[in-house]
Amino acid sequence: MAWLFTDPLAANLFVVGIMFASFGSYAIYRFLFNRNKMEVNMGFAYLLVATGIYALFYGILYSVIVPSPFTVADGELFGDPMIILGVASILIGVLMNKKVSLAFAGIFTFFGGILGVIYAVEGYKLGMASPLYILLLYLGAGIGGMLTAPMVVLPNKKAVQVIAVLVAISFIGVAILSFVIGSTAIGGHLVDFAKTRA
């Protein structure tokens, strides 16, 4: 049970980075370049389901343990959003695997995006974690999520391509921020754990 008392933030952020890099890459591949190979779709689908399960599991774990006194106060920033992100990723992966229209996922990503924007603004106002990084991270995820809805439903190919570029910029920006924040967290966590051994 000791693993419950550690902070897996670095690993979580790397998984989030992989997820958003995948989302952004797929927006370019499918909606900008208009490619649709089954084996590529299946690869994205399995990747999104696997990372989505991870995100959902840790989102639930954060939501359960954050009220406990041994957790960091800002941990709730990564609870509910991780649950929404995990469900969205699994949903998109399953729809892709079943060759179902992603328009159905657009409904979920639109409202999930609104949640991301709310977390961005409120987390920044409260000065939680690294406020500027959190603001940019959640704004990018939220705006990209909301833009995904028109990207997967609009019939105008030019409009879809423009939106795909914006979605890709938002999501790849989130991925880069996730990798940067996760990388800085590794050093801090190792220092903390090294102190406990001394």
Instruction: State Rg.
Output: 17 Å
Low-confidence stretches: none
Classify the secondary structure makeup into a structural class: mainly alpha
Question: What's the structural domain tally?
Answer: 1
For the largest beta-sheet, the strand count, sense and barrel status come to: none
Beta content comes to: under 5%
- Give the termini distance in whole angstroms: 22 Å
The total of helices stands at: 6
Q: What is the overall silhouette?
A: globular
CATH topology: Serine Threonine Protein Phosphatase 5, Tetratricopeptide repeat
CATH class: Mainly Alpha
The overall pLDDT, averaged over residues, is 86
Order of helices and strands: HHHHHH
The CATH superfamily is known as: AmiS/UreI transporter
Strand elements, count:
0
The amount of helix comes to: over 70%
Name the CATH architecture: Alpha Horseshoe
Give a topology summary:
Layout: H1 9-32, H2 38-65, H3 80-97, H4 103-125, H5 131-153, H6 157-197
Helix pairs in contact: 1-2, 1-6, 2-3, 3-4, 4-5, 5-6
Structure write-up:
Helices cover 79% and strands 0% of the residues. By secondary structure, the protein is mainly α. The longest helix is centred in the last third of the chain and has 41 residues, at 157-197. The two termini are 22 Å apart. The model has no long low-confidence stretch (mean pLDDT 86).
